[in-house]
């Protein structure tokens, strides 16, 4: 099959998202979400691009993107995504997309590039190995059925924390209470708790602009399930749930607790509150992902009943 690769155009986003989601149903995305990421990268001054592969009828059969992680930023390090619709796999679209991506990355003077691939995927691990990608860090995506979750065993934990003066409030509650400088304080909290989260690349400071636009401004953020743990006037922990337009499942953002409060049940209490919020919203499933060396958070998720999918591997190519 003759495959044409070009930059994504205004009318391509939905078709690109369908091809990506059909190929990777565990990681669904909508066209507007793809377009939003592309626009944000340009607004923040990062180098990025989205390509589509088309068949002779000019139908989008695959997509690939390269972009930079604002939370682990390096001017010459990139993240990429690549997917070909199942019905078009094995016909050269993936190779054509990679060759075009490789050209873009070399023009951007890339030092390295990373891509995630499920270890049980029928094509991706071999495809990447043939192109000199090397797998290193592993991640687990896990899911919890909130309709069957029993929160009774955790009521004593919540009571004990309440006696210590810890309470959990949602972003909706905090906004209604008129907390002064709330976005600034939430940004400071996230900046604090994310610094120790295991990741494939070293964490870099998340600018207030990125926090406002990519977190608080995310259309998928659920204000009733963006939860903050407080002790007096101090913010000591957070978790958040998001909803993609492409799925009814809820997705977990960053869960973290300040160092002085770790190991005291705050993260578990935040998770319980998030499960409760998800149930109130009528959700069925919560998904989360964690690095394989994030033992404390994996242990919490396991105790709560999250069931792990096969691991995803972060593959890196050095230029």
Q: How many independent structural domains?
A: 2
CATH 2nd-level architecture of the largest domain: 3-Layer(aba) Sandwich
**SSE class:** alpha+beta
Please name the fourth-level CATH homologous superfamily of the largest domain. Gcn5-related N-acetyltransferase (GNAT)
Q: What is the CATH fold-level name of the largest domain?
A: Aminopeptidase
The helix count comes to: 10
The number of distinct β-strands equals 14
CATH class of the largest domain: Alpha Beta
Low-confidence stretches: none
Strand content: 25-35%
Shape: globular
Kindly provide the radius of gyration, computed on alpha-carbon positions and rounded to a whole number of angstroms.
Answer: 20 Å
Protein name: GCN5 family acetyltransferase
Domain N-acetyltransferase: 3-161, 177-319
Organism: Deinococcus malanensis
Keywords: Acyltransferase, Transferase
Describe the structure.
- With 319 residues, the chain is α+β, with helices and mostly antiparallel strands.
- The chain folds into 2 domains: 4-110, Gcn5-related N-acetyltransferase (GNAT) (Aminopeptidase, 3-Layer(aba) Sandwich), CATH 3.40.630; 142-309, Gcn5-related N-acetyltransferase (GNAT) (Aminopeptidase), CATH 3.40.630.
- It is 34% helix and 29% strand.
- The chain contains 10 helices and 14 strands.
- It has helices at 13-23, 31-43, 93-107, 124-130, 155-163, 171-176, 182-193, 208-216, 266-280, 295-304; strands at residues 4-7, 49-54, 60-67, 77-84, 112-118, 134-145, 166-170, 221-231, 234-243, 250-252, 256-257, 285-291, 307-308, 312-318.
- Strands 1, 2, 3, 4, 5, 6, 7, 8, 9, 10, 11, 12, 13 and 14 form a 14-stranded mixed β-sheet that branches.
- The protein is globular.
- 34% of the residues are buried.
- The mean pLDDT is 96.
- Keywords: Acyltransferase, Transferase.
- It holds the Pfam family Acetyltransf_1.
- InterPro entries: Acyl_CoA_acyltransferase, Bact_Acetyltransf, GNAT_dom.
- Residues 3-161, 177-319 form the N-acetyltransferase domain.
- This is GCN5 family acetyltransferase.
């Amino acid at each position: 099959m003759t495959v044409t690769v070009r930059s994504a155009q205004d009318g391509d986003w939905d078709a690109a998202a369908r091809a990506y989601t059909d190929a990777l149903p565990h990681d669904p995305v909508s066209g507007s979400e793809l377009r939003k990421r592309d626009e944000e990268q340009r607004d923040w001054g990062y180098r990025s691009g989205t390509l589509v592969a088309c068949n002779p009828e000019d139908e989008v059969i695959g997509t690939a993107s390269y972009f930079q992680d604002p939370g682990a930023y390096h001017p010459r390090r990139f993240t990429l995504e690549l997917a070909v619709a199942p019905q078009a796999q094995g016909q050269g679209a993936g190779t054509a997309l990679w060759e075009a991506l490789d050209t873009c990355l070399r023009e951007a003077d890339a030092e390295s590039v990373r891509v995630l691939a499920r270890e049980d995927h029928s094509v991706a691990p071999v495809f990447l190995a043939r192109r000199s990608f090397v797998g290193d860090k592993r991640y687990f995506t896990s899911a919890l059925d909130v309709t069957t979750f029993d929160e009774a065993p955790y009521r004593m934990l919540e009571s004990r924390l309440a006696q210590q003066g810890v309470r959990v409030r949602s972003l909706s509650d905090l906004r209604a209470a008129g907390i002064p400088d709330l976005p600034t304080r939430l940004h400071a909290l996230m900046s604090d708790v994310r610094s120790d989260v295991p990741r494939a690349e070293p964490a870099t400071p998340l600018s207030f602009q990125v926090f406002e636009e990519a977190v608080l401004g995310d259309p998928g953020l659920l204000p009733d399930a963006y939860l903050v743990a407080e002790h007096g006037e101090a913010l000591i922990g957070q978790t958040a749930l998001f909803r993609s337009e492409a799925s009814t499942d809820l997705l977990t953002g960053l869960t973290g607790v300040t160092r002085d409060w770790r190991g005291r049940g705050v993260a578990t209490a935040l998770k319980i509150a998030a499960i409760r919020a998800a149930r109130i919203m009528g959700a069925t499933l919560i998904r989360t992902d964690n690095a394989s060396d994030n033992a404390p958070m994996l242990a919490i998720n396991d105790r709560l009943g999250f069931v792990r999918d096969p691991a995803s591997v972060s593959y890196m190519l050095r230029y």
